[in-house]
Amino acid sequence: MVVITTFPPPTEGIRHQEPNIAAHIKSKDLGKGTLYIAESRVSWVGESGQGFSLEYPSITLHAVSRDLNAFPRECLYLMIDADLETNDEEEGQQEENERTVENKTSEVRFVPENTGVLDAMFKAMMDCQALHPDEDDSFSEDEEGCFDDAEDDSGAEYDVAAAERGRGQGDGSVGDTYYDEYGEPMEVAQFEDVDPDH
Amino acid sequence: MASLRERALSTKTLVCLLQALQERETTVELRNEVSILGRIEIVDGYMNLTMTDVTLTTPNNEQQKYESFFVQGKQVRFVHIPDDINIVEAIKKQLNLIRGRGQYKERKQHKKALAQTLKIRQENLLMKERQQESS
Question: Which residues form the signal peptide (chain B) (predicted)?
Fold first, then answer.
């Protein structure tokens, strides 16, 4: 969860740092501050020293908004996969009930004074997002080993025609070695589950 | 293509099909019921999508426009495949692109050269053996 608090700005892995950025959470204007797009998180520190940090996995999407009908200023738009807490308690109380039923998403907008930096901000965030792939993805953990041969499988593409030719020439028993279109030897056994009439 | 791991994901999962949609305009539906119409620019190995000229439609049917757009792969629920795309062909083409035939041929030639060297060495050894036997 993201809580607005006083904290020092990140110092490591900063990809983009931009002063004079107004931050808006939902419709709440937090005033001006400095935006730090670092490899580990996105942080914004206001002029009063208060700010917030967003972790990349919680940033569903980010986009450059130049549509002034949607928002009156050109900005970097972030959709957050979490409920952002503001320290505004009154508002917090009122929204408490709605929050439990609503989809837990929040919107954050970073409005630069100079709109020319938007593309650089977008790019920096995009690069950092790529550093944080989904950790729950089954491929990330369970099947780690299945990628070990990734570099060497270039010729191992399955070719039906070659397999058929192979079957025609040999008796098709397990262990017979045939050659695919690149002259790579391949085991017949790997085609056993293929229906030749298919 | 960035990392080896990303490359592996691209070739061993259907991410390669989505990569075949690069530079095409289509609709992407997200897990939070948001739908996005725009041009797909980049699909990385983790299915992260970078798009341009996007119209985002919220579950409440509100529309917002974005010039550049990035969405996490894990948020993607559906990607609409345009009707004119032949899925099997698109996958094959993309795999060939990723694997880089040129690079493959180069490695192949290297393998051949290596085999040739080994063969010559073996022949030389045999000759020496025979010479020793006869002498």
Answer: none
- Alpha-carbon distance values, A82 to A70, A94, A108, B120 (Å): 22, 18, 11, 67
Lookup result for tokens 């593409």: A157
Highest mean pLDDT among A166-175, B21-30, B100-109: B21-30
Determine whether the interchain pair A63/B68 forms a contact, defined as Cβ–Cβ distance below 8 Å.
yes
* Band (B3; pLDDT cuts 50, 70, 90): confident
**What mean pLDDT is predicted for residues A120-136?**
90
Query: Domain range holding B83?
Result: 4-99
Q: Are residues B33 and B53 in the same domain?
A: yes
> Do A110 and A23 contact (CB within 8 A), yes or no?
yes
C-alpha–C-alpha distance, residues B103 and A17, integer Å: 39
How does pLDDT run across A11-39, given as a tens digit for each residue? 889 999 999 999 999 889 999 999 999 99
Mean pLDDT of the region B72-76? 94
Domain shared by B79 and B123, yes or no: no
Going by the DSSP 8-state scheme, the letter that residue A194 receives in this structure is S
Tell me the nearest-neighbour CA distance from B23 into chain A, angstroms: 18
Report which residue type is found at A37.
I
* CA–CA separation, B64 and B54 (whole Å): 8
- Within 8 A of A133 by CB-CB distance, chain B residues are 46, 73
Token pair of B96 as six digits: 């060939």
Per the structure block, which two tokens stand in for A146? 């299945």
List the single residue in B4, B66, B75 with the smallest CB-CB distance to A60. B75
Say which CATH number the domain at B70 has.
Answer: 2.30.30.100
Q: What is the pLDDT of residue A183?
A: 53
Inter-chain CB proximity B5 and A157 less than 8 Å: no
Say yes or no: B19 and B38 in one domain. Answer: yes
Q: B48 near B70, Cβ under 8 Å?
A: yes
Please answer yes or no on whether B65 and A70 come within 8 Å at the CB atom.
yes
Residue A48 distance to chain B (closest CA, Å): 31
